[in-house]
User: Fold this.
Amino acid sequence: MDWKAFATIFISVFLAELGDKTQLATLLFATDGKTSRWLVFAAAATALVATTAIGVLVGQQIARWIAPKHLSLVAGFGFIAIGVWVVVSTLKN
Assistant:
């Protein structure tokens, strides 16, 4: 197993998910006293595994037609665009 790749992927996804709307939604479900914390954990974890599986499968298919270098550039520009949009939206309010 490539532990360096594992650590890089783990840290990247972990940091991306911190404070994400998914984590906030899970937090809100966990505040409901009528719902088991284990149920919230199991449902949220299963949902994250399912969405990750979709991402891996779709990414594998896209890589057949588009070079990973180009995908990285598009993703990078996309994140920059979202960041600019958030800053501009914040400054308008």
Summary: The radius of gyration is 17 Å.
